[in-house]
Amino acid sequence: MTLEPGARVDVIADARIAGEGRELMPLAMVDAAALYDVHLADGLIVDIAPAGALPRRGTVLDAGGAWLIPGLWDHHVHVLQWALGVERVSLRDAASAAEAAALAAGAPVRSDGRRIAVEMRDALWPEPASLAAIDEATGDTPTYVLNLDLHSLWMNTAALRREGVEPDGTGLVREEAAFAITRVLNDVPDADGDAAVARAASAAAARGLVGYVDLDMTWNEDAWHRRVAAGFDALRVDFGIYPQHLDRAIALGLRSGDPLRDAETDLVRVGPLKVITDGSLGTRTAACTHGYADDPRNLGVLNVSPGDLTELMTSATAAGIGCAIHAIGDRANTLALDAFAATGAVGRIEHAQLVRHADLARFARLGVGASVQPEHAVDDRELSDELWGEQTALPYPLRSLRDAGANLLFGSDAPVAPLDPWITMAAAVFRTRDGREPWRPEERIDPATALAASTAGGSLHGARVEPGELADLALVAIDPLTASEAELRGMAVHATLLAGRLTHLA
User: Fold this and answer.
1) Which DSSP letter does residue 217 get?
2) I want to staple 475 with a disulfide (CB 3.0 to 4.6 A). Which of 231, 394, 416, 494 is the partner?
3) How many other C-beta atoms are found inside a 10 Å radius of the C-beta of residue 382?
4) Is-contact 260 270, C-beta < 8 A?
5) CB under 8 Å to 187, separation ≥6 — which residues?
6) d(CA 212, CA 80)
7) Are the C-beta atoms of 435 and 461 separated by less than 8 Å?
8) Nearest 5°: phi and psi at 89?
């Protein structure tokens, strides 16, 4: 039988087992290459037996000796922005303001008259961004350049005028002002945005992904109702709620973990309240205890006061909504942990890029997950060394958080980093790419922890390949527990299954 995506599989034949659950396979303990048949029914794993030991009834997927792992999750994605960004002009490799402005000038002009480029990394340029530089290259066409970290925008005079922003000589807007304009840029026709999301979801499934947490800055319930009605079924989705929509969510009775209301699928569920408490390293707005090396008086910014954060988390917790609190600088992480302690909220801290030594154990003690993006550490190694050289807290801790008992939840923050769980795992295990020496190698973690952190439950509660578990699975070419850095980053994914249904088949 020739299988195609969409087929429901009854038996995965001749598979090797990797990840959580492997320790239950007696043959695997003796021979890692032992082959098994995994029997599925009603979206679950119902039995695992040595290859050929039980009749292979129904639809059979021949693994051919490939490695079977739990399906993978990305715990932090800006879904629409990621999907649209894939199709926008990237400035990631621009080495100067002039080069970035010239590339931005080549971006296509949209039907609304705007020109958009993405992935600017101005913190690495030898000269600061200036209004003169972008005006000279882009002329009178409103041009918008999104920072890779999503916390700032560089605009020419025409764009500033269109958005009603008073020029200051740089063309830059930061934090909430940037978020507000970004929401405008992402306000594309529903059909166009949903088609981009569907294409990007298929690409994610092809990398072994079975689910993600959508943290787009909008009222996400309506968007997912529309996408599900149009047939979206490539991934599981938990969608976030932002503070400006919290009262609406509470009034509607939304609770984290509940399925999308009035939908015929349970693939999409209510996720957490997302609160952005501080800025970012690249924009130099992450709230830190000590100043930035290039401006010692700059301690970053708090976008939400401690009192307001506690009030938001109290309201969410009372309504049964979990919390996902963005905190990058050490001061922001401390205040976020304080708020979890004061409110008894359930949830996690997003990013945790600079953490005080004394706060590491508080993650575990309070039951707060560490939703982290390991590829950011590789991307930001020079920025961290340069701008956070005077900080006393730990930059981009992974091993330290794990050793302190925290539950690690891996993600990409796409479009900030590629939505590819193998890139994420490679960064966590090896802390490098492109043949460079590992950065802060003492913070590397072992492959088994990285794999578990890339599943729905995280490093402490990773999804397992065993009877009774969801048949959210992936077949890959190489054992991820023994793969090299290059092998992890380039991992070939042969098939992905969501509740036993093929969402990808190579």
Assistant:
1) S
2) 494
3) 11
4) yes
5) none
6) 12
7) no
8) -70, 130
The DSSP code for 466 is S
* Residues paired with 70 in a beta bridge: 473
Q: What is the pTM of this model?
A: 0.93
Helix axes 330-343, 306-318, angle to 10 degrees: 40
Among 271, 319, 354, which residue's Cα sits nearest to residue 336? Answer: 354
Output the CA angle 103-96-88, nearest 5 degrees: 30
- DSSP for 316-375, written as a single string: HHHTT--EEEEE-SHHHHHHHHHHHHHHT--EEEEE--EE-GGGHHHHHHHTEEEEE-HH
Strands 209-214 and 236-241: parallel
The C-alpha torsion from 344 through 300 and 404 to 69, rounded to 10°, is: 90
Q: What is the DSSP letter of 185?
A: H
pLDDT in tens, the chain (506 residues): 579 999 999 999 999 999 776 666 666 555 667 899 999 999 999 999 999 999 999 999 999 999 999 999 999 999 999 999 888 999 999 999 999 999 999 999 999 999 999 999 998 899 999 999 999 999 999 999 999 999 999 999 999 999 999 989 999 999 999 999 999 999 999 999 999 999 999 999 999 999 999 999 999 999 999 999 999 999 999 999 999 999 999 999 999 999 999 999 999 999 999 999 999 999 999 999 999 999 999 999 999 999 999 999 999 999 999 999 999 999 999 999 999 999 999 999 999 999 999 999 999 999 999 999 999 999 999 999 999 999 999 999 999 999 999 999 999 999 999 999 999 999 999 999 999 999 999 999 999 999 999 999 999 999 999 999 999 999 999 999 999 999 999 999 999 999 999 999 99
Task: Give the torsion through C-alpha atoms of 51, 52, 57, 59, to 10 deg.
Answer: 40
Please give the helix or strand (H or E) that residue 147 lies within, else none.
strand 143-147
